[in-house]
User: Fold these one by one.
Assistant:
Number 1:
Amino acid sequence: MKNITILALLVAMLLPVKVMAMDEMAYTPQATTFSVVTLGNAKGVSLRLYNEGQGGAPVQVVAMKSKRMKDGNRRWTATVKGDQKGKFYTFDVQNRDGRYQGETPGIWAKAVGVNGRRAAVIDLRDTDPQGWAADVRPAIAARDLVLYEMHHRDFSIDPSSGMQYKGKYLALTEPRAIEHLKALGVNAVHILPSFDYASVDETRLGEPQYNWGYDPVNYNVPEGGYSTNPYRPDVRINEFKQMVQALHRAGIKVILDVVYNHTFNIDGSNFQLTMPDYFFRKNADGSYSNGSGCGNETASERPLMRQYMIESALYWVNEYHIDGFRFDLMGVHDIATMNAIRKALPDDVFIYGEGWSAGGCAIPNDKLGMKSNVAQMPGIAAFSDDMRDGLRGPWDGDDKAAFLGRVKGNEESIKFGLAGGVAHPQVDLKKVNYSDVNWALQPTQMIAYVSCHDDMCLVDRLKASIPGLTTDELIRLDLLAQTVVMTSQGVPFMLSGEEMLRTKRGVHNSYNSPDSINHLDWNNLKRYPQVMDYYSRLIALRKAHPAFHLGDAQQVREHLEFLPGGDCLVAFVLKNHAGGDKWNNIYVAFNANRDSRTITVPAGKYTVVCSGGMIDENGMGTIGGGNVTVPAQSALIIHD
Ligand code: CA
């Protein structure tokens, strides 16, 4: 057996290393081979080598040689002898008309200099932190996930964070950060775009600059602005890995927000500089389609774009041990591509996305990764704006309230979300705000949430939509909202900072707002300790009880029964030890009214675990059956 293993290893070593189709740099100390794929009609490609990541003159210019590929495109290669580690490089593609497109690091740069203008020759193994080989993705099933969406700068930039590496990847390696996340109980952080993006100038990091980062430049390199030194190509890679490693050690997954649907611009994009007009969709009249709302949309249905997305996601999983992906505007990508990505990634890598676009796309909606098509994408989840807006109010007006603001008629949308978007005999789709189909085949295909980085955060929305709200009411409604989210059979998701009653001072779209708007104020943990206390107990309650995350549509239909409610009153029972729960029947009720309401439960003796804005899994006393009071603007959870 041992001999066979050694033999297999030897054979594997002798066979050529499988280079990914789009690899553009293969380093050894003896020589580095560069390669780039262009359209078949390109006339030439110049490779330029530099000592610096920006500025300076090339130290070497090489005319690359090409071979026509089976698909009609050309692959250009050049091998440069000697140890090139530390050099930077660009490609410059000569069009069929003889014109040079302009320098680009290529579409597959894995390391870059400052601002991502030039790619870098490095040995990726030099970037691995100590113990990296032993790092593994934490084993957490989709049904057990509790997602926490965060921006590096929001999280740690304020002095009150107490963190050393403010606004950096390394903040997430600090005990203060790790302990907070563990205390809260979330088990996956979803980081806003952390690939190299354009809108923060990495040469001016000493000045306050802020952006969410939805403007991709280099898809396969970490953003330099979150590193301690964007000039040194290895630093951002190493620090990103340190972040992943620290979170994994704490049992927390890392999910990447990916924005393959558009690039920062067209003409200056690496796509366009490499293969003009291949990667972008056009309208019939030749103009660029703009389904992203950002001036362009990529063409996922084209073979090389599809392959690019698959290989890019795989690369993040293999090289950075990423646990999942949130696809920005998934509704711009075609269904077949999303399914191909699902198939290519390991099963435990969680995939979800925005099931909408930001404008009309150049291919029909029934081919796109829209929310209504999620049933055609098994193993891929979408955000439920149904539940979100049923709770807080519609997307088209910050001053409009819904369930939380005592607007009746939103009960069915809440029920839809509680059932995880799957078909349920007691959910009447005709009364659900947006969806007229049960788009989720499984509850793990629905993301349950009330707020995210987009739009107002929860506190601001409550204030904007409910006039005359007192602080006491604000907190009650905030806790009520998250209790709906955390007792949904979907996958719960929360915006970072909600646990400390975050406010963005009423700013609706804070994508480039200053730190004073976007930062978390960690002092709020002391100001409103009851919020963090409630959130952490709520999440712990969910995690401890399989009934709240059955993970299977049939189980949901079998064990989740809605009870008669009323205006702004929704109630349900998770019955008969749902999911093997140690509790027999769990009654849950949400009352958004300003006075108490009652629900009716069978005779018996019940332990109260949540009432009036307090939670204790071990119980806060017992009550009898019959008419049970649900206090104003709060959730009630009891069990027998
Ligand atoms: Ca950047």
Number 2:
Amino acid sequence: MSGDSRVPSGAGEPLEAILLVGGRGTRLRPLTISIPKPLLPTAGVPFLAHQLARAASCGVTRVVLATSYRSQMFAECFGDGSSFGLELDYVHEEEPLGTGGGIRNAASRLRSGPDDPVVVLNGDILSGHDLPAQLDMHRKADAAVTLHLVEVTDPARFGCVPTDDNQRVTAFLEKTPNPVTNRINAGCYVYTRRAIDEIPPGRVVSVERETFPALIESGQVVMGYVDNAYWLDVGTPEAFVRGSCDLVLGRLASPVVPTPGESLILPGATVYAGATLTGGTVVGAGALIGRDSTVEGSVLFDGATIGSGARIRGSVIGRDASVGNNTVLDGVVIGDEAHVGARNELRGGLRVWPGIELDPLSIRFSTDE
Ligand code: GTP
């Protein structure tokens, strides 16, 4: 312990976290044009609500949100955090400082002493891992940083993180076709406060490319806590839809989804006779689902309208967007206030930008051609 009695590190005592939410979320465009990724409606609430509620249930008492892109929206959404039983504070980066720079910038608001553990979370991760066990490993090893590692079937898509027999991280390796381990960085860290203060201030720093390799190089203790509980990075449209559906279905328990089921229909939505909603579909507030349509494993934002006889699967329908009668959508993103006319078929990752009208009736052929 640091001797600073404000934030002791034992169980049941105050524990601080930094939540990294400053990214632009480009892989989720066009959904992230108007709203940052961590605030996208997910299983009926802003995505971060799941992370905040879970952090609180794991003993976190105070969170500093490291914001940059559309900063003001975070405080508007979560205020002082009292509804989660948390104390929230917000810091802003005028220019995004990267993951390490964002953590360093947020440190100015921490109250923890130099020897206290501080949890750091990427703001786009759904995880059911045992955070108290990760903290326990960190304390016992007296580590500078302890990373949550998850084992994946396709490690070549990620950088990988080998460990020795004592779970000490031996390297932080870039993406390669032949990874030496299937363990990857899961985006939840426990730092000893003093290791945060050692990150250079006022410039862009990447924890993955700079901070972790430098800690390992200099012989500091970096531990890898392996836990294969539910884990998902919701950075792409497919993963975002999957995450929302998994929460609705109860595949990952969330304190803010009290009753899991096949679908979640928010207040003020209208579902007409014969419509079927399955696979963890969310129907946003004020949305309208037409007669005899089927919606499977999809996310419909507030005010979305689906015509009768439509078939929607694995898709996101933006706020106040509409889809015409008998149209088929599979694995697509329809931006806010966009309109897809009747009897269309869109598949395979197609993205319709906000406000776009996609309607056969709007296509006109010139008689001169
Ligand atoms: P993409 O543009 O789609 O890659 O998404 P992203 O901008 O969110 O980047 P990435 O998924 O790599 O970010 C991981 C986490 O770090 C997310 O929660 C981001 O919000 C956060 N993050 C990324 N860059 C910054 C930054 O410069 N500052 C802060 N404060 N957070 C960041």
